[in-house]
Amino acid sequence: MAALIEKVEDDWARYSPDIRIEFVLDYENLNLDVDQWPWENDAFLAQPMGCRYPVVVRSLERMTMRKYHREWLQRWDAMTDQLGRAGGLAHTAACRATSGTEQGLRELQTRFNRERGLVSLVLSAPPRPETAGRDEITAGMKAGVPLIVWHRHDCGSTEFTDVVESVLHGQDELHLLERVRMARTTAFAEGPARRHVGEALTILYDDPTRLVVPSQPGPPEGIAV
């Protein structure tokens, strides 16, 4: 990744674009700390790519399953419209999972069915196979939720709740993803001893209008099948 980023920076240097890094991951790898990987192959003054660029993850499975795309598009449009107008999301547009029990998941799914204005989900646990977060994120994906947030170790701390509040509902001039980047930068500044939640903050920010993986790939042009 560092070599790829270095090449992009070299190739695009004269154009000065804004760069966002997206990782398209399957369920097994969504909890990887990709935003903490170094952005360059230089050990001197190394820093995580999540401090330099907005870094998000996206769902490989959902890209390839068109039956979920209609609601995904609807909620994406509602989210981007709201962020464009207010800079942050209304509290009524955000949902926080609170229980990993079967009944808790049933209630979560019911909320998505009843409240079409829900566009973001905060997990109660990381999306690992052994935790409730895996089922919660699956429910969110199937409901078309484009924005999902979690802490890679502990989603129940007060510090995590405070950072999520600032990131999702802040009314400053920063884009939501810039607020995530600033949280990661604060964590880097404080160092590993402080364990600021920004160093383990993952955001799934999934744009249904840009499908990186084709859902029905065909043969290359000019090749007979």
Q: What does this entry look like structurally?
A:
The protein is an alpha/beta fold and 225 residues long. It has helices at residues 2-11, 49-52, 60-63, 69-86, 102-114, 132-142, 158-169, 176-190, and strands at residues 21-25, 55-59, 94-96, 120-122, 147-151, 201-205. It has a domain at 25-30 and 57-205. Helix 5 (102-114) runs parallel beside helix 6 (132-142) and helix 7 packs antiparallel against helix 8. The strands form 2 sheets. A 4-stranded mixed beta sheet has the order 3-4-5-6, covered by helices on one side. The chain is 39% helix and 12% strand. Helix 2 links the parallel strand 1 and strand 2. It has 8 helices and 6 strands; from the N terminus they run H-E-H-E-H-H-E-H-E-H-E-H-H-E.
